[in-house]
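INFO batch 0412 | record 1 of 1 | parsing
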Amino acid sequence: MKPRDGRCRHGMAVCSTCIVITDAARRMSDNINARVVFTTWDQLCNAWMAFKLSDGSSDGVLYDTRDDAVNHQLHERMCAYFYMRNALGGTNPRDCQLFLDMHRNVYDNGGHFTDPLAPSAILPLH
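INFO prediction complete | emitting tokens
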């Protein structure tokens, strides 16, 4: 259970240990896995999908670019944008929950994923 400030017992806003998997994450995972099974590699390897943060649903469209995915949504900050190349072998609800939670946290704190001048929420290891 999270305290009032939204942080887990480890003091983190998004924690892989304290994660609670929701139906939204299961729905997102199911959508991605269905796409991986029923779509050719050539179509997936550079495609993006948009997932609603509220329920993990998708419009089912494979977009050529992240900007295309963002521009086809009613409100940019209501969705998370997933690069399909990151899951060519499929995914699981736990990883999708972390992905959704991270997006919600960034948006709730005034962050922005599509701004090229903004720092990356995920820091490179090199």
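INFO post-check: Residues 23-108 form one domain.
INFO record closed
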